[in-house]
Amino acid sequence: SLERIGAVPSRSWLAHAIRADALTNLGRHEEALASAGRAVELGPREALAWHVRAQARAPRDPPSALQDADR
Asked: In the 8-state DSSP scheme, what is residue 28?
């Protein structure tokens, strides 16, 4: 369950990205954006981190989502 992955390791960009993706798919966009933002902070060179942040941003801020997708 998502609650089991709620406490992701603080230094794992991938864990935050996976959590953000799951939350986005559940429509929990605010939580997804927080996890995706942490993924980007921890893995600024990781394309997947930027991708999941773009997905989390898309419903509420399409221009910012496009900027993230271009990285």
From this structure: -
Instruction: Answer for the pair 39, 16: CB distance below 8 angstroms, yes or no.
Output: yes
Q: What 3-state DSSP class applies to 8?
A: coil
What is d(CA 16, CA 68) in angstroms, rounded to the nearest whole number? 16
Task: For 20-62, list the strands marked E by DSSP.
Answer: none
Residues 27-59: tens digit of each pLDDT: 999 999 999 999 999 999 999 999 999 999 998
* 1-32 pLDDT, tens digit each: 455 555 666 789 999 999 999 999 999 999 99
> Distance between the two ends of the chain, CA-based, in angstroms?
31
Neighbours of 28 (CB within 10 A): 16
